[in-house]
Specification:
The protein is an alpha+beta fold. It has one domain: Alpha-Beta Complex (endopeptidase fold (from Nostoc punctiforme)). It has helices spanning 14-26, 79-92, 99-107, 120-129, 144-150; strands at residues 2-8, 38-42, 47-52, 57-62, 70-76. The protein has a 5-stranded antiparallel β-sheet with strand order 4-3-2-1-5. β2 (38-42) and β3 form a beta hairpin. α2 (79-92) crosses α4.
Length: 152
Amino acid sequence: MIMKIAFYKKSKTFFGRLIRIKQRYWDGHPKNEAQYSHVELVFSNNVAFSSSECDGGTRFKVIEWNPKHWDFVEVKVTEEQERKIQEFCTKENGQAYNWIGIFFAQFLNFNINRKGDWFCSQIVCRALQEVCLFCGESAHFVTPAKLKKLTK
């Protein structure tokens, strides 16, 4: 089965622009990797899961994918692995956006995180860790650019 990780190349909000700037100038990612402000996990049925400040936290969503605004990386999984990832996402669905974690972990590099709340790259990384992908990474320190780099 093929799942995808979708990387958003634009910024809908001021906060999204801050994420892109932070990845490029503070983390030193090249411009082509630092262009991402958001990330979605896309199941084989084309339903996406992530956490969004615009949506107030974690949610499943059907998205009209404009290829001008999104880059995709395919993730090969078994049917059992996709089920396990989906179970994790269903359990975490409806959780709040992790403002504390994104501020402290992403911008100040402190290991302060609000348990049960998620930001986009954190929840996508953690969901994939359910099937031992990206194990060893601290999900609350993973940015969209770092997640893209990990997929190579």
